[in-house]
Design a protein that fits this description.
Elements: E1 5-6, E2 14-17, E3 20-26, H1 32-35, E4 39-43, H2 49-74, H3 76-90, H4 106-140, H5 148-170, H6 185-194, H7 202-219, H8 229-242, H9 247-268, H10 293-302, H11 308-319, H12 324-328, E5 334-335, E6 340-343, E7 355-358, H13 361-370, H14 396-408, H15 417-427, H16 433-440, H17 456-466, H18 468-471, H19 474-484, H20 493-505
Antiparallel strand pairs: 1-2, 2-3, 3-4, 5-6, 6-7
Helix pairs in contact: 2-3, 3-4, 6-9, 7-9, 8-9, 10-19, 11-15, 16-17, 19-20
Length: 506
Amino acid sequence: MAGQSRRPRSGSHLIRRGEIYYYRRVVPQDARAAFGKSEVVVCLRTASEAEAKRLEKQHDVDFERRLKRVRDDANPDTRRARLAVDIIEASPLNPTGQMALAYLPAEDREAVRALVSPHYAALDAHRNEIARLLHEIQQVLPRVPLGPEIWQRCRDGIVSVVRQHVASATGDPPPPPVVDGIYTLEWAFSRWLRTRSGERTEESVDTGRRHFDAFIAYSKLVMLDQVRRSHVLAWRDHLVGSGEYRPNSINQRLQLVGAILRVGWRDAEIPEQNLKGIILPNPDDNDRGAWSREQILKVLRALEPNTWASWVYLIGLTTGVRIGEPMAARVGWFDPKTGMIEVNNRKFTKAKKLHCMPLLPCLLGPLTTYIEGRSPDEYLFTDAPRPASPKLRASHEASKWFGRFFHKHEIGRVFHELRDTWIEAAKHSTVEKDIWEIISGHSGATVSDRYGGKKPDVLCKSNETICEFITGDAEIMVEVKRLVGTGVPASSEPERHAFLAAGLAA
C-alpha cells in the first residue's frame, strides 16, 4: 500500500516509503550510547533504485567508519593512538601542536603525550643536524665575496651531492646526474650509456643498470672519486658469501660494474683504480670440454628432421658459433654463393663485431632448399621459440629449450659446449690459428674485409678441414643427412640399420 514502508531485500539497507528510498541501518547494542540512537535512517530523496543503490554504498562506508571509531574510542589504547595521530597530522612540523594535549580528557593526556613527544623530539634532532650541516658548509666556503656564476656553481654542486646522498640513504630514485664538474656514480652510468650508443640491447642496458644499482646499494657510495678497489672487492666477497650466485654470475656483475666505473674515471679524468685480479676462478670451467661422439650421435638421433632445433644444433656443431647468432639470423643473411650465414649487425654478436658462419657443403644445398621462396626479412628459423619481451636475447627461449631437451635425453651437456667441441677440433687440425679464430669469432676484424681479413672461400675450406671429425664419420653423417632431408628416414629399427649400413658402405 502507498505510504507504508517496504521491508529491505536480503543484504540491503534500503527501504521504500511511498516512491522514495531511505537508507536504514540498525546500530549495534554496544555503540547505541555513542550514536545516541538505535538505528540510523536517512532519506535518499530519490525514487530511482539504481541511484538509491549507489547512495547506499556511500552511507554504508560512512556508517562503518563511524562505528569503527566508536568502538576504537571504547578501547583506551586505540583511542589514544588515534588522538596522537590527529595531533601530529594537524601540526606535523610545529611542536606547539602539543598544546592540544591540554584539551584532552585527563585520563588520556599523559598517555597521548608519550606518543607524540618522540615525533617532536626527532624533529628537533633533525633540525639540529641540518643547522650543524649548514654551519659546516659555511666554514668550508671562502670568506671572500664570490661572483654570481661561482656561487651558482657551488650551489649546484652542493645540492647535487646532497640529493645523491639522500637518494642512496632512503632508497629513493636517483636524481638526474649533474655534469658540471659533479662526478657522481650516476654520472658515470650516463657516460657508459653513451659508449657504443645504439649498439647495446635493452637487455644489456637493463642488466648493467641492475648490477650497478646493486653495487651502489651495497657500497653506499655517491661520488665517483670515492670508489676504491677495496669497495669492489668487498662487494665481490659479499656476493660470494650470500651463496646465491655461481662464479660466472658474479664475474658478469664485476665485469659490468668495472666497465661502467672505468668509463666514468676516464671521462672525468680521475685516476683509475686497479680492478685487475678481482674475477673469480670458475670451478665449473673444469668440467667443460668437447662433446663425445656418443653424445653427438644420441642428440642427432633424437632430433626431428628439418626443424629449427636440428638446424641450429648442426650449425653450432660445425661452426662453433654461439647460439644467439643463428637464432637472430634472417633469411637475407644467408648467401648460397659464398656458403656463409653472415651476421651483418654487430648487436647480435658478443664482441659487437661482424661475424660469419661458413657452412659445410652437406648443409649448403639443403639450407638453400629450406629457405626457398621466403622473404629476406624473415627469421631463418621461423618455427623457433621466441621471447615475448623485446628486452630478452633472441637465444633466450631456444637455450632453455635445448636445456630441457638434453635433460630429457639424459645428456649432461649444454649447447655452448658445442663451441668447445669445434674449437678442440680446430686446435688439432692443420688450420692456422688466426683462421680458425676468425671462424670462431675470437679474432678482431681488419680492414681487409668484414670478417677478419680472410676471403669466404678460404674460411669455408678451412672449416671443412676442421669438421672432418663430423664428415669423416659415416655413422654421424647418416644422421646429419637424415636431419637435413637428404637421407632416407628410417621408420623402424631394422630399416635404420639397413640405412646406416648403406651409408657406411658408401
